[in-house]
Structures are given as C-alpha cells and as structure tokens.
Amino acid sequence: MESSSPYAQSVRVLAIGGTIDKVYFDAKSDYEIGEPQAGAILHEAGVAFDFVVESVLRKDSLAMTDEDRTLVRARVEAAPEKHILITHGTDTMTETAKALGEQTDKVVVFTGSMLPARFRQNDALFNLGCAVGGLQALPPGVYIAMNGCLWPAHRVRKNREAGRFELIAG
C-alpha cells in the first residue's frame, strides 16, 4: 500500500499502459511505455486512501488483443478491492471497458491521457483526479473519466478529430 488511512476505501490501480505512462527515448526519437505513473501522482497528491498499483501490461492500446482484454477482466475480478482505477490508452479504452461487461459489485473507472504524465503540461493529473472522484461517488459499474466528465463506459466514444471523449446520443 502506498498510503495508510483508516477512514477511506482502498483502491487498486491497474496500469495497462498507454500515453499516460509513455516516456520519450531521445536515442530512438520515439516514445515507449514506461513505469506506471499513477502511483507517483497519487503519492504526490497526498491522497487520504490506501492504494496499490499493479502493472498489468505496458502496451499502447492500439496493440491490445482480445487476450489482453481477457487478462484485464480477470485482474478486475480477482482484485479484493471494490474500487478499481484502470489507466489505459485512449484509443481502445472503450473496447476494454466493454470487455469487462457488467461489474455488479465493483466500481471500475478507466482513465488515461492525451499527453504523457511526465510532460509538464498534460491532462493526466486532471483525468486521474476526476477518476478518483468517480470511484468515491459512483455506484458499482464500469465508467470512463476523461476531459472532466464521468460517463458509463457504454455511452462514450473518443472523438479523434476533436481530441476528446464525448457522450454517445441515445
């Protein structure tokens, strides 16, 4: 556990990869998935709840397979915590969320970022904070926290042209 508080729930962070964890490798002039950033962000924020970070995959979400999504589902189901935060690449976050199906006894919130958390200006901190708020306030189910909004996972999509997530009508 990264924090120790007797009065707040425990959160399991499942780090899947994606832009939030990307690191720039100058020698290659490329980005690669590095260590999960969520734990450091939560620690620096001084959160008042216990959390554990589990690195599940280090993949760009475009490289994820059905087997990877099955693994994520298994990790969610096996987690003893009732509050699960999943950091994930934004391109296929909704697909992985749908693969979880209906989680009837846990609050599962996916989040990520359009820019690496290690960048000075990024959306990772805000999105992570929004996701933590959702974990505390939402009933059991699967959600996505991006761009300052929380949505049921089956009601949202990424609008690549606008560079943000949006609610699906209907």
From TrEMBL:
Q: Which PANTHER family match?
A: 60 KDA LYSOPHOSPHOLIPASE, L-ASPARAGINASE
| Xref: Pfam families | Asparaginase (PF00710)
Q: Which InterPro entries match?
A: Asp/glu_Ase-like_sf, Asparaginase/glutaminase-like, L-asparaginase_N, L-asparaginase_N_sf
> By what name is this protein known?
Asparaginase domain-containing protein
Kind of enzyme, top EC level? hydrolase
Q: Which UniProt keywords apply?
A: Hydrolase
What organism is this sequence from?
Actomonas aquatica
Q: Which part of the chain is the L-asparaginase N-terminal domain?
A: 11-160
Which molecular function GO terms apply here? asparaginase activity
